[in-house]
Amino acid sequence: MSTAIFEQLRPRLFALAFRMLGSHADAEDAVQDVWLRWQNTDAASLKDPVGWLVRVCSNLCLDVLKSARRRRENYVGNWLPEPWVNPFANDTEAALMDQDSLSQAYLMMLEKLSPPERIALVLHDVFDWDHTAIAEALGNQPNNARQILFRARRKMQDQGVSEQSKTATDMRGVAAVFPGEAGRAQRLKRDDLADFIAALQSGRADRIAALLSPDVMLQSDGGGKASVNLNILFGMDHVARFFAGVWRKNFATSDILIRESEADSWVLFARDGVVHSAITFAVNNGSIDRVFVHRNPDKLAVFQSIDS
Q1: 305 vs 114, which has greater pLDDT?
Q2: Has residue 308 been placed in a domain?
């Protein structure tokens, strides 16, 4: 019975750990550690086994985050979270997960929070935990948890104001910064991706610029294993000229695929069946205002099973 409880919750625990750590391998390790502790626990004595599992997973992630941040300080170039590819796509429990909060845009905003702030925000906004439950997970008092959550929300809002040059009125998650239909985050759908690909294939910076916000920002992650622009690019002109140049140098001879996950829509570039680059976008007011480019082969491994 205890095994059945854990296995039912495994997809949710994995998604929780991934939001905290931004890595499939680290998330899997955290969930495995939860499993080992679960095996040594009398599940029948627990009043709230689900809460126990989430708390243990959160605490393990807190420990990993402290060392992960030190590792990222030595990371070559910009660090981006791995693309989210749901390993439990056909699982009933997976349908309960808030997939929008697994997008590149949302995860990058979480990176600006301290580990306790990150835990508090995810537990509250994604898992709907109250301050008392969050305090228990963090090992403090409800008033402290409330202050931690307040600071987390304020930082998320401040990021929206500084990066998007507008005030975010709704403080709940990424919808405050990338408002879409019914308050949900926007991303490019398959038809929109086709428009971007067509503009890219034209090699014309003006056609690419027509799809971009004036304040668009581009971040690339090569991890020191692939060539990327080490500096963050800002502005329509810089980003459009970057894509026009990159197309001629790196992408013109590549196969192009579209992959739509629950969190993001991706344009993939492959040679000989191996994905070497992946691009996803966040959209505001109908224009692309965030671009995330992955070229680190370790992080692109999640796409290698795609049948091209």
Answers
A1: 114
A2: no
* Same domain? 166 vs 96: yes
Burial class (CB in 10 A: 0-12, 13-18, 19+), 4: exposed
Q: State the Cα–Cα distance between residues 120 and 135, nearest whole angstrom.
A: 8
165 and 236 part of one domain: no
pLDDT tens track for 154-211: 998 887 644 443 333 333 333 333 333 333 446 777 888 999 999 999 999 999 999 9
Mind spelling out the 3-state secondary structure of 89-104? Answer: CCCCHHHHCCHHHHCH
Domain shared by 144 and 87, yes or no: yes
* Domain with 107 in it: 2-179
Task: Tell whether 175 and 196 lie within a shared domain.
Answer: no
Taking the C-alpha atoms of residue 29 and residue 157, their distance in angstroms, rounded to an integer, is 32
- Chain centre to alpha carbon of residue 120: 17
Q: What is the CATH number of the domain that holds 41?
A: 1.20.140.160
Tens digits of residue pLDDT in 94-142? 554 556 688 999 999 999 999 999 999 999 988 889 999 999 989 899 9
Same-domain pairing of 241 and 291: yes
Rounded to whole angstroms, the Cα distance separating 229 from 209 reads 18
Structure tokens given for 126 = 């994604």
Domain count, the chain: 2
> Within a domain: residue 154?
yes
| Contact (Cβ atoms closer than 8 angstroms) between residue 62 and residue 19 | no
Among the listed residues 83, 76, 88, 70, the one whose alpha carbon sits nearest the alpha carbon of residue 8 = 88
Q: Which amino acid is at 145?
A: A
Dihedral of alpha carbons 18, 24, 26, 31, sign: positive
Residue 60 has pLDDT above 70, yes or no: yes
Q: What is the pLDDT of residue 164?
A: 45
Q: What is the maximal distance between C-alpha atoms in the chain? A: 65
**Which tokens sit at 164?**
């998007």
- % of the chain exceeding 70 in pLDDT: 85
CATH of the domain at 279: 3.10.450.50
